[in-house]
Write a structure and sequence with these properties.
Blueprint: H1 22-38, H2 42-71, E1 72-73, E2 81-83, H3 84-88, H4 92-103, H5 107-116, E3 124-127, E4 131-135, E5 139-144, E6 154-157, E7 160-164, E8 167-171, E9 182-185
Helix pairs in contact: 2-4, 4-5
Length: 189
């Protein structure tokens, strides 16, 4: 620290020597090995490469924003559709970036969506975050699945109508009360 800020005495952080931390292994093991193989300027070359990647990312994101209206139907922001023929005419990397940008999805999701571009109509792919994609004739339609495990428990206590999830249950109570008026029902369909 004093070498960078003369007159300031910094404290030495003991965690900087702990090899359990990735930053320390990079600093003490990986960077020296890279310098030995690629020469002392490897740090500057890595920095320059990261700057080039960042600049390329800005360009790709700009292109994605520009062409998205031509390849994507966004009636529902959380579940857009993609125009198959328009997507098929694009470079693979751009197709991947459009899927990633529109859906914030995993690498595996991108691979499944890309495969649907060449799949038959009716083909389906499960995606992360409880989504599914369906290849229709000229579109890939992404849908958010509603969570429904098929089993709903309903407690009925008294007269009236009771709602459990998307199910409505009507009850009639008998005037004869030989048993408690509470009944439990499972798996109402």
């Amino acid at each position: 620290m004093p070498r960078y800020l003369p007159g300031l005495n910094g404290e030495k952080d003991q965690s900087n020597a702990d090899q359990r931390f990735l930053r320390n292994r990079v600093r003490s093991v990986i960077m020296p090995a890279l310098r030995e193989v690629f020469g002392p300027s490897v740090s500057e070359r890595i920095l320059r490469s990261s700057e080039l990647v960042r600049d390329a990312d800005v360009v790709v994101r700009s292109v994605v924003r520009e062409i998205s209206p031509a390849v994507m139907i966004t009636e529902h922001a959380e579940a857009p559709s993609f125009v198959v023929e328009a997507m098929k005419g694009l470079p693979r990397g751009l197709v991947h970036e459009i899927f990633r940008s529109a859906l914030s999805c995993t690498h595996e999701d991108v691979a499944r969506l890309t495969a649907l571009l060449n799949a038959e109509a009716g083909s389906e792919a499960s995606l992360s975050e409880n989504r599914t994609a369906l290849r229709e004739r000229d579109q890939i339609v992404v849908s958010v699945l509603e969570h429904d495990n098929g089993a709903h428990e309903v407690a009925i206590d008294g007269d009236g109508t009771y709602v459990a999830g998307t199910y409505v249950v009507g009850t009639e109570m008998s005037t004869r009360r030989s048993a408690p008026s509470r009944g439990w029902f499972g798996s109402l369909h």
